[in-house]
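Exercise 7. Given the encoded structure of a 461-residue chain, write a plausible sequence.
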């Protein structure tokens, strides 16, 4: 995408301005989105974008700019503007490029650049809608979304790295709205992966619609949730969003290097219950958060974050490695060429344990089963969180009694890790989008069902 001679000229110019290190991130991205309401197409959008990000590093200081132009003069002008803030005498010499093509482990059958399946996508969402509303007057509305994109990247740096990769993403989501008089409730289901349109084979559209409708009906008939401190079983799959938000970000060197994480000085220490092991793995075949290389050109890997309760690794990008001394983990990620890379999660999850879900429920006298989690708020640095339960049930005398609504889980990441006493066998992963300093990126969250012995539950009963 970028001429090698141009890349060499720009990087040599960056070092001539005294930068210790410089790199170029070249991106070409094709996007398509489709939205339906009930069985009608509401919106279809597609687009193509190209750009180049330029990063200069002076010690631990990073200067970043970007352009849509690919000629050497435009790129060198960006270098001049950035270097004007901190121009120094040259201290480094660029190495000759050594092109490396990363192995591709994520097989894609129908990339967006070859996709002619728009009518098929519309039909898929219509079938989901038909299934959600079939013989059910409570389901008043459905919303369907399909997002597909194809991202080509190329990375050059002053250490001689030249590499490129192509990434494919596709995600399908269906939301159902149930209504009874003035009362409304929603439910949703989705599929996704580092795939082309073949992702639709993961789930029959009728099942997507039925699951979204089921959740909506459950929530419509739910009772007010009791509040107070109590044990909670958090369901598998998207239940892992709590670990992602309240703990995962605290293990990125983006926060560790600034000592803005409570875990910054606890490497090797017990930070969780001994039954908890957690991983950030970029290598899972066709998973939503997987990558062949990160956005700094390093091949991805599986990183053991916590093992039997003990902190074993952080997620480390290039700058984070220089600032903390920890080895890079292939975790430098960004939304697009408009952002400098930062340490970010990929597929982050609590590993499967040995407990049965039935035993977790049976161990609760009075508590909550949070079958599905939604969004919430997290305090950076401390991991204090407040998360909504999108499908919850009251548990009494070891049995699930009735659905509850308006439940929230309130605690801190470090606290909840130590309160986990049981970890299930039913590991599942779920798609999400994660926002941070380098933009919004595809990440996978996940966990088996876990029992938290003591957590504050907010409710309005």
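Solution.
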């Amino acid at each position: 995408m970028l001429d090698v001679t141009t890349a060499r000229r720009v990087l040599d110019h960056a070092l001539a301005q005294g930068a210790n290190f410089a790199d170029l991130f070249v991106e070409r991205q094709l996007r398509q989105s489709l939205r339906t309401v009930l069985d009608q197409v509401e919106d279809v959008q597609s687009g193509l974008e190209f750009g180049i990000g330029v990063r200069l590093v002076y010690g631990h200081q990073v200067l970043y700019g970007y352009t849509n132009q690919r000629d050497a003069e435009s790129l060198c002008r960006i270098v001049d503007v950035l270097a004007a803030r901190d121009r120094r005498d040259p201290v480094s010499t660029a190495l000759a490029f050594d092109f490396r093509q990363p192995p591709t482990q994520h097989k894609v059958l129908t990339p967006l650049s070859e996709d002619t399946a728009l009518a098929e996508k519309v039909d898929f969402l219509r079938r989901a809608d038909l299934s959600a509303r079939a013989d059910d007057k409570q389901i008043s509305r459905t919303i369907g979304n399909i997002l597909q994109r194809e991202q080509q990247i190329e990375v050059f740096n002053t250490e001689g790295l030249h590499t490129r990769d192509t990434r494919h993403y596709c995600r399908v989501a269906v939301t159902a709205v149930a209504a009874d008089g003035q009362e409304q409730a929603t439910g949703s289901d989705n599929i996704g992966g580092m795939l082309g349109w073949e992702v639709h084979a993961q789930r029959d559209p009728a099942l997507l619609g039925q699951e979204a409708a089921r959740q909506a009906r459950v929530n419509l008939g739910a009772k007010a949730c009791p509040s107070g401190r109590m044990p909670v079983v958090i369901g598998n799959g998207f239940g892992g969003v709590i670990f992602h938000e309240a703990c995962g970000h605290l293990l990125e060197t983006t926060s560790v290097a600034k000592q803005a994480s409570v875990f910054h000085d606890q490497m090797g220490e017990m930070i969780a219950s001994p039954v908890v092991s957690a991983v950030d793995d970029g290598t899972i075949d066709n998973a939503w958060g997987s990558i062949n290389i990160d956005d700094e050109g390093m091949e991805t890997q599986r990183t053991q974050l916590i093992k039997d309760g003990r902190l074993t690794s952080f997620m480390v990008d290039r700058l984070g490695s220089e600032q903390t001394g920890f080895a890079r983990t292939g975790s430098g990620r960004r939304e697009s060429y408009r952002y400098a890379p930062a340490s970010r999660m990929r597929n982050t999850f609590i590993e499967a344990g040995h407990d049965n879900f039935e035993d977790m429920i049976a161990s609760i006298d009075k508590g909550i089963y949070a079958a599905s989690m939604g969004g919430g708020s997290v305090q950076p640095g401390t991991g204090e969180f407040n998360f909504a339960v999108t499908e919850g049930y009251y548990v009494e005398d070891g049995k699930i009694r009735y659905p509850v609504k308006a439940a929230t889980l309130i605690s801190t990441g470090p606290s909840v890790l130590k309160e986990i006493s049981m970890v299930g066998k039913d590991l599942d992963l779920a798609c999400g989008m994660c926002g941070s300093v380098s933009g919004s990126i595809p990440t996978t969250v996940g966990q088996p069902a876990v029992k938290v012995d003591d957590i504050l539950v907010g409710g309005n009963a």
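Remark. Residues 247 and 262 are 10 Å apart (CA to CA). Students should compare their own answers with the one above.
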